[in-house]
Amino acid sequence: MTHFEQVYNQYFKDVYRFVLSLCRDPAVAEELTQETFYKALSSIGQFKGHCKINVWLCQIAKHTYFSYAEKQKRFVVHETTETASELNIEQLMLSKEEAFRIHKALHRLEEPYKEVFTLRVFGELAFAQISQIFGKTESWSRVTFHRSKRKVQDLLEEDEEYGSSPMRNH
User: How high is the pLDDT of residue 23?
Assistant: First the structure.
């Protein structure tokens, strides 16, 4: 077994879960994960070891997903947060209407907040890994993540004030 086969076997599931968190489609996630490893194999000579190999693979996967999404003309990054206002996000996500409301709020966020959220919440990456992807400090990752949570809270509260929450009337 080659070294690359070992890397593939060790990290395939992690990369697949990360891509699935971005696209929310198992078939697309499978295809993009395969493409990610193809690209990684093609550019393995460029891996300098400055970050963990799984972080490098997730960077390739992220760019592969963004390219795919651009081609599909439906660039939507699915994101969520841990808390919004005094509401529990896990409970809100049980309702499709509330989940849609949260995704709409997250869609209105600017970068890098969207991507940090995706990496942290769906990619389940540690702040240290996120900081490596962005070439920033771990503190920057933490602050950016918490600022994005606050922005989501504000957007959800703003929507409530203007009566755009369908679940608030029930």
Answer: 84
To 10 degrees, what angle do helices 138-161 and 127-134 make? 100
CA-to-CA distance for 77 and 69, rounded, in angstroms?
9
Please report which confidence band the pLDDT of residue 119 belongs to, taking 50, 70 and 90 as the band edges: confident
pTM of the model: 0.45
By the 10 Å C-beta count (0-12 exposed, 13-18 middle, 19+ buried), 31 is classed as middle
Give the burial class of 135: count Cβ atoms within 10 A of its Cβ; 0-12 exposed, 13-18 middle, 19 or more buried.
exposed
- Residue with token string 């990360």: 18
Q: What's the burial of 145, exposed, middle or buried (CB within 10 Å: 0-12/13-18/19+)?
A: buried
